[in-house]
Design a protein that fits this description.
The chain is an alpha/beta fold and 422 residues long. The chain contains 12 helices and 20 strands. The protein binds guanosine-5'-diphosphate (GDP), 6-O-phosphoryl inosine monophosphate (IMO) and magnesium ion (MG).
Length: 422
């Protein structure tokens, strides 16, 4: 049995927090796509952790964490993540298993990302510059280097050939990128040795056998549905399938083993990086969301753009993923607003529509809002839904009616304990 947990917006919905909260119910937590462009934040016992590649179940004794074949791993960042966790005495050899089929991010992939973005000027994607796009390009171009390859004797020759090609490509971009490849390579090869101290597995076989013996799996998504390479706001997307189907290809689990599809969304909307965002706010409301919600990228520290909840986009994400239960995050951030807007339709080239069109650029789309009453109460200390103000209950019920999926968890703060089940 596999449950999926996915972000339904443009990432940073609070996936890390909820995976941590739910891990006690599962035997295995498995990341299925993305790489260290992700930043998943967990808070408990007064400490805050940001994970990039390591699944968010790592702090729990009961669960094994798997990095699936669909993930791209930067050994250098991965090593730092392990070092940051060293004080927790986690038995990584047993608790953190890596798919041999996961692809490696090389130092030159990161440089290529930087060169590509620099060459785009104003049209840049706003990438996290972690080498994600170039690594997935080499994967689909059938040139990539996989984790399992590092166990072969000739892998460094293959590395060299690919890195040489990348250097020629970087030159082609003809942009000013300063780097010392020798230094980057020393760091990289050292980090690969650390990676090799962990357990490599054939994760599709591991997960198949685990299911046969009755183990439960939670698949942890990265990014969000609107950053999906196929269904997101292309080309302002990431380079993997962040939607439900990505869990099948990114872990090798069969579609008919998937039970719950848990969709995580913020009570408002944020986006970091470039690309269309119809409900974006440039006024005091947006600034307040950013300030109260502490909306800064967990990976890059960039301020996140903020706006009202967009139900047209959210419905689309629910539909594409087949979401069976929803979790609403950061409800506490909206406390204090007199009124709240929820986008329920778009004016698209003069017509009212309720589906997400091909092109949601500003010149085509104006959001149509339904105004709702706000609430003043501080939610952060609440522990049951019976303490919720009426306006919050109305907000939740309105969303459930529109989305036709129950909201099972309302999150009222970043800490593990600030999680209310409905
Ligand atoms: P992820 O990438 O989906 O795991 O999300 P991020 O960790 O990038 O961003 C979510 C941010 O919101 C983190 O700083 C969390 O600590 C924080 N957070 C999560 N849930 C809540 C919540 O209910 N209320 C508030 N105020 N912060 C939250
Ligand atoms: P988590 O898992 C928010 C965004 C980048 C950029 C675009 C492409 O923490 O939700 P890339 O580095 O993939 O080339 O960037 O996608 N992006 C994210 N935004 N959360 C993330 O991950 C993101 N990962 C990538 O800002 O706009
Ligand atoms: Mg994040």
């Amino acid at each position: 049995m596999v449950d999926l947990l996915l972000g339904l917006q443009w990432g940073d919905e609070g996936k890390g927090k909820i995976v941590d909260v739910l891990t006690k119910n599962y035997d295995i937590i498995a990341r299925f796509q993305g790489g260290p462009n992700a930043g998943h934040t967990l808070e408990f016992d007064g400490i805050k952790h940001v994970l990039h590649t390591i699944p968010s179940g790592i702090f729990h004794e009961n669960a094994v964490n798997v990095v699936g074949n669909g993930v791209v791993i930067d050994p250098v960042i991965f090593k730092k993540e392990l070092e940051n966790l060293s004080k927790f005495n986690i038995d990584f050899k047993k608790k953190l298993l890596i798919s041999r089929k996961a692809h490696l991010i090389l130092p030159t992939h990161r440089l290529l990302d930087a060169a590509s973005e620099a060459s785009k000027g104003k049209a840049k994607i706003g990438s996290t510059l972690k080498g994600i796009g170039p690594t997935y390009m080499d994967k689909t171009g059938r040139n990539g280097i996989r984790v399992g390859d590092t166990e072969l004797t000739d892998w460094k020759d293959r590395y060299r050939a690919l890195a040489n090609k990348h250097e020629a490509m970087i030159d082609f971009y003809n942009v000013d990128i300063q780097y010392d490849l020798k230094e980057l390579e020393t760091e990289f090869f050292k980090a690969v040795e650390t990676l090799k101290e962990l357990t490599f597995i054939d994760s599709e076989e591991y997960l198949y056998q685990a299911q046969k013996t009755g183990k439960s799996i939670l698949a942890e998504g990265a990014q969000g549905s609107l950053l999906d390479i196929d269904f997101g706001t292309y080309p302002y997307v990431t380079s993997s399938n962040t939607t439900a189907a990505g869990a099948c290809t990114g872990l090798g689990v069969a579609p008919n083993t998937i039970k719950e599809v848990i969709g995580i969304f913020k009570a408002y909307a944020t986006r970091v990086g470039s690309g269309p965002f119809p409900t974006e706010l440039f006024d005091e409301y947006g600034k307040t969301m950013g300030r109260v919600g502490n909306e800064f990228g967990a990976t890059t520290g960039r301020p996140r753009r903020c706006g009202w909840l967009d139900l047209v986009a959210l419905k689309y994400a629910v539909q594409v993923n087949g979401v069976t239960q929803l979790m609403m995050m950061k409800g506490d951030v909206l406390s204090g607003f007199d009124t709240l807007n929820v986008c329920t339709a778009y004016n698209y080239k003069g017509k009212t529509i309720t589906h997400l069109p091909y092109n949601i650029e500003e010149e085509n789309v104006t959001p149509i809002y339904t105004e709702m009453a706000g609430w003043k109460e501080d939610l952060t200390k609440m522990t049951t839904t019976s303490q919720f103000p009426k306006a919050l209950n109305d907000y939740i019920q309105f969303l459930e009616k529109e989305l036709e999926v129950p909201i099972k968890i309302v999150s009222v703060g970043p800490d593990r304990t600030q999680t209310i089940h409905r």
